[in-house]
Amino acid sequence: MNMHATRKAFGSDTLKTILGIPVLAIRWDDAIALLTRLVAERRFTKVSFLNAHNANIACTDPVFAEALDDFLILPDGIGVDMAAKLLYGAPFPDNLNGTDFVPAFLQASSRPLTVGLLGATRVNAEAASVKLAALAVQHRFVVIHDGYFSAAEEPTIVDRIAALRPDVLLVAMGVPRQELWIARHIDARHCTLPIAVGALLDFLSGTVPRAPPWMRRLRLEWLFRLLIEPGRLWRRYVVGNPLFLWRVARQKLSGAGARP
């Protein structure tokens, strides 16, 4: 199911366009049911998440923006909620951030699935696989490769995915590399549900700590990440968040859903 099919299936009322990117406005349980149904029906669907950071990237990287047009996009974080409230008068029904949503989706899927893991370091991917296997014992988790490979290695990795043909493929390479890699290399011959998951495998491995529950409840996980990795993330949050909101304000003033 690409975004054109999504628009037809859900109608414009279920999609909120943030900086030119249509994002599914759906409740948590309904999103889990949707992904479960797509897997059961073997309907190839590329899945990603929109937050302020990758919305900013899409504004300056037309190749990435074009790739996202063929993904089912779920809302991630307080930034896109603020954008939806400004543009549409209401936030998204639920925050479907991949770090929490993807494990919950796998836990809720009762039919045994094969889940491929691609990305992160080998150690972190293996540790994430062990964690996921404990969370969702009904599934088989297979580490295909870490995220550090050359272009020359890509055909072998793609062949490995095709041979396994997992129901779900978790691709953890960071934005925009993971979405572009899925767009260029993965189709219905390889898996049913490729999901771009960012730092999920690093979080699951325990290498990168999550914010304490009270910060997550207050929607401040971004601040926690900034505090523990300021050198890497200051530009993303300190510069990126105000820039994102400025771009959204421009969209509001223009009365359009197009990318500025």
Shape: globular
Number of DSSP strand runs = 8
How many separate domains? 1
Mean pLDDT: 93
Q: Give the amount of beta strand, in percent.
A: 5-15%
Give the CA-CA distance, first to last residue: 27 Å
Radius of gyration: 18 Å
Question: Order of strands across the biggest sheet?
Answer: 6-5-7-8
Number of helices: 13
Low-confidence stretches: none
Q: What level of helicity do the residues show?
A: 40-55%
Structural class: alpha/beta
Order of helices and strands: HEEHEHHEHHEHEHEHEHHHH
Largest sheet: 4 strands, parallel
Explain what you see.
This protein has 13 helices and eight strands. The chain has 260 residues and is α/β, with parallel strands linked by helices. The longest helix is centred in the C-terminal third of the chain and has 25 residues. The two termini are 27 Å apart. The mean pLDDT is 93.
What order do the helices and strands come in, and which of them pair?
Elements: H1 3-10, E1 15-18, E2 21-24, H2 28-40, E3 47-50, H3 52-60, H4 62-68, E4 72-75, H5 78-88, H6 98-108, E5 114-119, H7 122-135, E6 140-145, H8 154-164, E7 168-172, H9 177-185, E8 193-196, H10 200-205, H11 213-217, H12 221-228, H13 230-254
